[in-house]
Amino acid sequence: MIGTQKALVPGIIFSCLLLFLLQQLVKPIGAASAAAEPLRTMETDQATGAEISPQACQFHDRYPAGVVEWCGLIEANAQTYGIDPLLIAAVMAIESGGQPEVISVSGAVGLMQVMPSDGIAAGFQCINGPCFSSRPTIAELKDPDFNVMYGTRMLAGLIERAGNARDGLKSYGPADVDYWYADKVIQLYESLNW
Questions:
Q1: What residues contact residue 175 under an 8 Å CB cut-off, 6+ apart?
Q2: Cα(43)–Cα(39) distance, integer angstroms
Q3: For residue 135, what are the CA distances in angstroms to 28, 53, 93, 128?
């Protein structure tokens, strides 16, 4: 590395950590405003249109409180993409606390906090152009059904590509935090698997 690059690295790392900490501070504010919305107590089965009560879910007694209302969506997508529903619940609990309208300071949207193609995320540039240009829009990701499907599919693909959940979660979570995010999700996941 040349001298200028060496001087920039600590600044970049500090900026990333500062953004992450700000995101953690903003999420509770977004969750508080979303909490004013009426709670969804029933999910609707996509195939039949029938309502599913949280008690009808296989693991309803293990889901974190803010996430249990989404158990129907979680379990349907878990089955579709071959991933443990309690892992999805752990990601959702950490990412959004079960609040479908939350948008992070970095621009991630909804229950699974997926980066969209528009908004703040449109400005993130990768080697070949905008990093998230092939992603859904903010409006699409605010739809809980779509968000959980997309986030679960993306997580399942990352786990398959990485060969294990920890490395897949590292790729799913925020950049530049090494395994901190993955370990946080795994710790919650393991506590749900009693």
A1: 16
A2: 11
A3: 25, 31, 22, 15
The residues, ordered by sequence, that sit 6+ positions from 79 with a Cβ below 8 Å of its Cβ are: none
Task: Specify the CATH number of the domain 3-192.
Answer: 1.10.530.10
- What's the CA gap between 30 and 168, in Å, rounded? 27
Measured CA to CA, the distance from residue 71 to residue 65 in angstroms comes to 11
The answer, as to whether pTM is greater than 0.90, is no
Question: How far apart are alpha carbons 58 and 180 in whole angstroms?
Answer: 29
Could you give the 3-state DSSP secondary structure of residue 126?
A: strand
CB of 96 within 8 A of CB of 27? Answer: yes
Distance, in Å, from the CA atom of 30 to the CA atom of 24, rounded to the nearest integer, reads 10
Q: Give dist(CA 19, CA 13) in Å, integer.
A: 10
The ranges assigned to domains in the chain are 3-192
pLDDT, one tens digit per residue, over 126-162 is: 677 655 556 677 888 999 999 999 999 999 999 999 9
Number of C-beta neighbours around residue 51 at 10 A: 12
